[in-house]
Amino acid sequence: GAGVSQSPSNKVTEKGKDVELRCDPISGHTALYWYRQSLGQGLEFLIYFQGNSAPDKSGLPSDRFSAERTGGSVSTLTIQRTQQEDSAVYLCASSLRTGPFNYGYTFGSGTRLTVV
Amino acid sequence: GDSVTQMEGPVTLSEEAFLTINCTYTATGYPSLFWYVQYPGEGLQLLLKATKADDKGSNKGFEATYRKETTSFHLEKGSVQVSDSAVYFCALSDRYGGSQGNLIFGKGTKLSVKP
């Protein structure tokens, strides 16, 4: 696609429920990144994919968080048994394999997750 | 490891004032440097970049010069507008650092411009 697409744009869920957040990167971008941005906070790195593999999962905050990417394209971030502290904007970005150094990332508009 | 430090906000200015947002970095190699902007309710957009020392990135009246000697990439604009109100993030990509060339972000600086 023309840009990075994230869905849903807003999600309200009850504490304890599972949620899935979707990211559709720019066609041909092999690298995909998930970040979390809590209210008034900076960017918290969650996970990075190169193709379908995740060389760096170091940012996932707990084992309730997981992510997968299939076909080198769409990625899904899953949060199980959501807690109120999971409320944040989840941002996805993509880049060419050699892109970050020369071009940076292209970000989606984010999914605002509210756990009530 | 590699890191980016930018001035704490919030920064509040009157329209047409001069803007400087300081950014300094630590990197193993010779990084590329970026400024991203996040307008209210939106994702991050690339504002400008510089890929080698002494390069000047510029866009929408904003500019920043890659200073290797001071490891800095300060963002400047001569005359801000209300529409510039946003959060600004400085970032680096270090091809030879431990981050595999991925972007490392500063904490962001919120700018509010009053009419």
Summarize the structure in words:
The complex is a heterodimer of chains A (116) and B (115). Chain A has one helix and eleven strands. Chain A is mainly beta and 116 residues long. In chain A, strand 5 (44-50) and strand 6 (53-56) form a beta hairpin. The model of chain A has no long low-confidence stretch (mean pLDDT 91). By secondary structure, chain B is mostly beta strands. Helices cover 0% and strands 50% of the residues of chain B. Chain B has strands spanning 3-6, 11-14, 19-21, 23-26, 32-38, 44-50, 56-59, 62-65, 75-77, 86-93, 103-105, 109-114. The model of chain B has no long low-confidence stretch (mean pLDDT 93). Classes of the chains: A mainly beta (116), B mainly beta (115). The interface between A and B is medium-sized, with 23 and 22 residues.
Spell out the key features of this protein.
heterodimer; A: about 120 residues; mainly beta; seven-stranded mixed β-sheet; four-stranded antiparallel β-sheet; 1 helix; about 50% strand; B: about 120 residues; six-stranded mixed β-sheet
Radius of gyration of chain A: 13 Å
Distance between the termini of chain B: 41 Å
Query: Biggest sheet of chain A: strands, sense, closure?
Result: 7 strands, mixed
Beta-strand content estimate of chain B: over 45%
Strands of chain B, count: 12
Give the chain pair forming the largest contact, with residue counts: A-B, 23 and 22 residues
SSE pattern of chain B: EEEEEEEEEEEE
The averaged pLDDT of chain B comes out at 93
User: How many DSSP E strands of chain A?
Assistant: 11
How would you describe the oligomerization state of the chains in this entry? heterodimer
Helix content of chain B: under 10%
Write the element-wise H/E pattern of chain A from the N-terminal end onward. EEEEEEEEEHEE
Detail the poorly predicted runs of chain B: none
- Tell me the structural class of chain A: mainly beta
Structural class by SSE content of chain B: mainly beta
Number of helices of chain A: 1
Shape of chain A: globular
- Percentage beta strand of chain A: over 45%
Shape summary of chain B: globular
Q: What's the helical proportion of residues of chain A?
A: under 10%
